[in-house]
Amino acid sequence: MEGGQTNGTPPWLDWATRLQAIAQIGLAYTRDPYDRERFEQVRAVAVEMMAAGSDASGERIAELFAGERGYATPKVDVRGVVFDDAGRLLLVREREDGRWTLPGGWADVLESPREAVVKEVREESGFEVRPVKLLAVLDYNRQAHEPPRAVSIYKVFLRCEITGGGARADTLETSDVGFFAEDALPPLSLSRTTPAQTRRLFEHYRRPDLPADFD
Question: What global pTM score does this model have?
Answer without folding.
Answer: 0.74
